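Journal club side-thread
Mid-discussion, someone asked how the predicted structure for our own chain would compare to the paper's figures. Pasting it here so we can look after the session.
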Amino acid sequence: MNYWLLKTEPTTFSWDELVRRGRAEWDGVRNYAARNNMRAMAVGDLCFIYHSNGKPEIVGIARVVAAAHQDSTDQTGVWQCVDVEPIEKLARPISLAEIKSNPKLAQMKLVTHSRLSVQPVTEEEWKLVLNATI
């Protein structure tokens, strides 16, 4: 299993919207690196859902339920996406400031490649973030 972080603007598509839908295509991504990360995702992989605007923070955990496929919002055939379902809301959100203040997370893509909307998370980073929610 691999771990990922999916960024979304909460005013466009929030954690609550994902929960309301129960399953969603992670569509609209128009960055080659992010698309390639989605191509690397497998069914069962886990993803942090990160709200990127307002109060930047990790708010929940989702699971990949459909591997990379054609993005239904793309007419060019270039862009792909995965489908995800919500697993659980974090006990408390983990802010970007909190992540940046932890030296063990200094190499996390969220810190080093902050604009990338779909990014890998190492197993160690995953565990550190989850331990911060306890």
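Post-session note: The beta strands are 3-8, 24-25, 46-51, 57-70, 80-95, 118-121.
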